[in-house]
Specification:
The chain is about 40% helix and about 10% strand. A hairpin with a 5-residue loop joins strand 1 and strand 2. The protein has a single domain, classed as TIM Barrel. The chain has 13 helices and ten strands.
Length: about 350
């Protein structure tokens, strides 16, 4: 099956899809007499990387394995790295672990790639503090998940107040993060459009897969520079078709080349090839997200020569039987050699 969609990029020639550092990060816009905000280009593919816990002691983060994995991802056609996305099990990490993960990532991720860190907490003040800390460590943008504990009180007005307070205080650009499957908190297109007017809110990652919502947001913000990122590889292609600029995708941890190819095929107007590649990636994407979860993603990484390692309780390890099912899914999608 490898021959059906031939590789457009080689890992040794990843510069083909990179924009220069100047287009990635450096423009600033004055919005008040005293405040300036950076404008970032967040187009392309970003893996939300798993946290590597020690095989001997899952209570400890294995920072050496983190460095090794990051060096391998550096050889892939990626626009950057996301630390502390949902696949990073950030809700199971201490503040110190979150900070140390960011430190190590910034040491290893080169300056011409973006480092985005999840900084969302349940409280607005805590989110601001974590965002300021991430900025001080060299993070390029903050990915801020919706708070979710006070569900009944988290009205659109409350969410708007939260995000505006964070964006006002943040030294770095803010990316909204909506993952209603995990939080049970959705952000309507109308709310996102309102928040897009804030000069320090530059983008949104949405994991819901509502392409109609994507289309409405991209149309209403078409003149503002606001950017949308697909939150799952399962709907990357249709998202691109209605204006998304890329994705923060669990599958990118093991299929960076294929997903970057898909973006480039779409950009080049090769829509039928892009559609076929999207179709081929549906099953493996479902396997490492909804079906087998983080433990499945880590197992798939092990199959490709990355370090996956264990998950932390309350998550459970993938069974041997499911691991073999996962292996066959990856083989059928040409993400692993056939047996």
């Amino acid at each position: 099956m490898l021959g059906r969609i031939g590789p457009i990029f080689q890992a040794s020639n990843v510069s083909v899809i990179y924009r220069s550092l100047s287009t990635k990060s450096c423009a600033t816009t004055t919005t008040t007499a005293t405040k300036k905000y950076k404008k970032l280009d967040v187009s392309g593919i970003f893996p939300p990387i798993p946290t590597p816990f020690s095989a001997q002691d899952p209570g400890k983060v294995d920072y050496d394995q983190l460095r090794n994995n990051l060096k391998k991802w550096n050889q892939q056609p990626l626009s950057g790295i996301v630390v502390h996305g949902s696949n990073g099990e950030f809700v199971s990490l201490s503040e110190q672990e979150r900070v140390e993960m960011i430190k190590v990532a910034r040491e290893v991720v080169p300056a011409d790639r973006l480092l985005i860190a999840g900084t969302g907490c349940e409280g607005t003040h805590q989110t601001i503090a974590m965002t300021e800390k991430a900025a001080s460590l060299g993070v390029d943008a903050a990915l801020v998940i919706t708070p979710s504990f006070w569900k009944a009180q988290l009205t659109p007005n409350a969410l708007e107040a939260h995000y505006r307070a964070v964006a006002d205080a943040s030294p770095i650009p803010v990316i909204l993060y909506c993952v209603a499957k995990n939080t049970a908190i959705d952000m309507s297109a109308e709310l996102v459009i309102k928040l897009s007017s804030h000069p320090n809110i530059i983008a949104m990652k949405d994991s819901g897969g509502d392409v109609t919502k994507f289309a409405k947001i991209t149309w209403e913000t078409r003149d503002t520079g606001f950017q949308l990122l697909a939150g799952s590889a399962g709907f990357l292609y249709p998202s691109l078709c209605v204006g998304a600029v890329g994705g923060v995708l669990a599958l990118a941890n093991i299929a960076a080349l294929q997903l970057s190819n898909l973006v480039q095929l779409h950009s080049n107007g090769k829509f039928n090839e892009a559609k076929q590649l999207q179709q081929r990636l549906i099953d493996p994407n479902t396997a490492v997200t909804a079906r087998f979860g983080v433990s499945g993603l880590k197992a798939s990484m092990e199959m490709q020569g990355f370090y996956g390692g264990p998950v932390r309780l309350p998550l459970l390890e993938i069974s041997k039987e499911d691991k073999e099912v996962l292996r066959k899914i990856l083989q059928n999608a040409a993400l692993l050699p056939s047996a």
